[in-house]
Amino acid sequence: MSAVSTERGGMFSSFALFNYRVFFLGGLLSNVGTWMARVAQDWLVLTVLTNNSASSLGLVTGLQFLPVALLAPSAGAIADRFPKRVILVATQLALGLNSLILWLLVATGTAQLWHVYVLAVTMGIITALDNPTRQAFVSELVPKSLLPNAVGLNSASFNGARLIGPGVAGLIIGFWGIAPALLINAISFVAVIGGLLAMRSTELHPAALRKGGGAVREGLAYVRSRPDIMLVLLIVFMLGTFGMNFQITNALMATRVFGKGAQEYGLLGSIMAVGTLAGALLAARRTRPRLRVLLGSLFGFAVCTAALALAPDYLTYSILLVPVGLTALTVMTSANSMVQLAAAPQVRGRVMALYMAIFLGGTPVGAPVIGWIGDQFGARWTLLAGSVATGLTALVVLLVVTRHERLRIGLRWGWPPRLEISRPDPLPAAPPPIPS
What we know:
Layout: H1 3-7, H2 18-49, H3 54-81, H4 84-107, H5 113-141, H6 147-176, H7 178-198, H8 215-224, H9 227-243, H10 246-257, H11 262-285, H12 291-309, H13 314-342, H14 348-361, H15 363-377, H16 379-403
Helix pairs in contact: 2-5, 2-6, 2-7, 3-5, 3-8, 3-14, 3-15, 4-5, 4-7, 5-14, 6-7, 6-11, 6-13, 9-13, 9-14, 9-16, 10-11, 10-16, 11-13, 12-13, 12-16, 15-16
């Protein structure tokens, strides 16, 4: 395969590589099941196991992400120590089994709220290892020049599934109940496992595996020495903790404010995915991420979320979800590409573990708080709180970047930035990739 065909192939250039194609397809099918299960689980908690309790839903969401924060350093060390494809096969099998147990409990009518809590924690433990491994594995599927494109296409897969999954789940729940939607999710893990097993080992670009002790400490020291990476981590923490709580806010707005049922609630996720899918495809077209795009989209997210909170009816709310999804996804893809491009290959698993811990690990704090705000002050305030938090974050980061010499990137704000790092990089230069 020529360099031209992979590096200048446009929006879908990563599809020229067989391994990426099967990874993408398996992930797409599995992601559809995941979004169906999210809607089904939320509806189970809100309408079957509780009396429309926002706090309970927030707690379930928080429990799913708490292990991500607690186990991130160790999970990242494992991702850098063992072959990533082997790890992913094991984690996907475990996630499939976890999903199968929840389906069995619901199908037999024995599901209780504490069951959902326990399975949420179990899912979080597995996800803590799966997420950073999967994020770092992308750089082994494609050359560095295609990494932003591959990250954008991965987001397109995730959000294309988000476009399909919630709407399908709403229809299935409305006609046949919650259990069938959960079963489809459990079966969908076969697709991603099959894709992993079908890959051609000779066409991978594996990073050198980490040997010896001190991996966790080394990873933390590396991130502390990189102010460019820490700047992005601050942004994703605030977005993930206070902005990306639509699993809760959409449910509360649909049921409490607009008086809608399962089908209308599921449709909201699909409508929002129109914006996120558009953002993912636009990200796939960019040859490199830019900080100005990251900050501009974060400002846009804050403004659109405030407008969403003030929507007078269901139709207006649905329409506003499109720009909200577009700006949110632009923030996430830009941040992900920035961190992956900036991190050395042999420490990328640990860096991405911290990235996912920062992004998802704030949810155990943010989700219960947002749920409490919904119970105390009303559903609209759950969105306003996220708007204020992310808007202030964008303003603070902009001031820091423009006022401090070490983080001044210039008018073009390209990436990686040319920063003068006071401490030396604790890792040696990365070895060249194995040619395909």
